[in-house]
Design brief:
mainly alpha, two-stranded antiparallel sheet, 5 helices
């Protein structure tokens, strides 16, 4: 179980770093948005590139922020039923939901979105807007984000199995296993 917990910790650490970058992207997106609006109204100058950069930052934030949010147990959950379960029941529900729904869904969506990215990459897709950005890098974010969410799902499965076997307890606030 120790090698699996080490792998879980590595995935958690990676998603923690990604979460830090996503937190910075919120600030950068606000700054770019404010600067773009100020320049547009003060100097009557507008750039599609800056507007698209905002969209790209938001897309990165959503796609990669989901794995960070899942890691920190801050995701949306219907807790009416969940809270009535015992701690062991909650672990089982998390385990089953992640193993049979989250991970397969994420892997399917990553698989289905890969050709979407590859087509854009193969043709060197650019924005149709004047001054727009290259499109294929942001299209890579879609399968990559789903893969990262699936990896965090694997980490959560490992932690739940370890908790059910008594190796660790789960810190409810941040989902960190404690020994």
């Amino acid at each position: 179980m120790r090698p699996l917990l080490a792998m879980s910790n590595a995935i958690d650490a990676l998603n923690e770093k990604i979460g830090y970058v996503c937190n910075l992207l919120v600030l950068f997106a606000c700054l770019v948005s404010a600067a773009n609006a100020m320049i547009r109204y003060a100097f009557s100058y507008s750039s599609n590139g800056w507007l698209e950069l905002q969209w790209y930052m938001f897309a990165i934030l959503v796609m990669f922020g989901s794995s960070y949010t899942f890691k920190r147990n801050e995701h949306v959950r219907v807790e009416i039923f969940y809270l009535t379960l015992s701690e062991r029941g909650q672990l089982w529900l998390d385990l089953i939901g992640t193993l049979f729904f989250l991970i397969p869904s994420c892997l399917l969506l990553a698989y289905l979105s890969w050709p979407f990215f590859m087509q854009a990459y193969d043709v060197g897709e650019m924005s149709g807007n004047a001054g727009g950005l290259v499109r294929w890098p942001i299209k890579f974010v879609i399968p990559a984000g789903f893969v990262m969410l699936a990896l965090q799902g694997v980490s959560e499965v490992i932690k739940r199995i370890a908790a059910l076997q008594g190796y660790v307890t789960i810190d409810a606030k941040y989902e960190r296993p404690t020994q």
